[in-house]
Protein: Outer membrane protein beta-barrel domain-containing protein
Amino acid sequence: MNHIQKILVIAALLSSTVSFGQLTEDPEDRRDQGKDPLRTQTPEGRPLPFGQRLRFGGGINGFRFGNPFSLGASPVIAYQATERLLVGVGASYTYTRYKGITNTGSTVPVETYNQYGGRGFVMYEAIPSILPNLYLHGEVENTTIQVRYDQLNQKASLGLTSPLLGLTYMQPISRRFGVNLTALYNLNANSSVARAIYGSSPFILRLSFF
Structure:
């Protein structure tokens, strides 16, 4: 191979490397230009792969110590469908234990709650030019709560599907992760089962991370 051929081969390799770098360039590089990172495409306008549009996270819910003791978790997977639209699914589980006081002054379990469910949601950034990172939020949540009455050795189970509408404000930390404060109104709040699961208020507040 003569020198000209070697130069042509090296030039071809370099150009291929540059092209590959452009295909996989991180949209976070836009920060160097004073712009927000793109959520679904590279700075050159190429669509990001499916995996780079996924967001993973969740939150901790029902966190209480004492009587009752309560602790839960709610993992979330979301997909950045467009620059302004997020769709996702989530699951939730909360354990709650109430204790009573006996005649001797000791505490014993009285009621135990296992609450679990799943939800599908849609978030749409309605007016980013005026209120960036504020999303219209709609979802459908299916929840089941199982109650065990320890003293009576009895069990009960309740289930409910609830449509929820409201707003989410997201504070971005990176292109695929943020802190989310959500306020939702339960359209099924008048149900007695809804009051047993969500409480007396029709409003649901959440803090999550994804």
The CA atoms of residues 100 and 107 lie 5 Å apart. The first strand starts at residue 54 and ends at 64.
